[in-house]
Predict the 3D structure of the following.
Amino acid sequence: MTEEQWRAFVSQGTRTGKLATVRADGSPHVVPVWFVLDGDSFVFNTGKDTVKGRNLARDDRVSLCVDDDAPPFSYVTLSGRAELSEDPAELVRWATRIGGRYMGQDRAEEFGARNGVPGELLVRVKIEKVSSAGGVSD
């Protein structure tokens, strides 16, 4: 995929990303996340005390895979290093934007208020590597 194509693909609708972090023992931890692109980064939020939150605080390496599970099947994997923030205003701002993408603009502020609270982390990952394939089964 071209850059324009992969950006459109990962931003389409409500596709979740499957986020991979590194556990303390070096093994992978993979969970679905809601996210948005912001320039050359992707942004999501998570609880500070979740497995992924603790993993990211210890080891900032991360990959996000977004896929289309219907034929002809496509995927994009974004990799980089996470920067964590607990800034209250930024948490609310991004949680609102992410909530709007996944739950609709009419519920964006509700999700911003729910997820932009103390104990949450704003995670920004500068994209360092992109792997993608469109129409895998064509």
Summary: Residues 99 and 105 are 8 Å apart (CA to CA). The two ends are 14 Å apart (CA to CA).
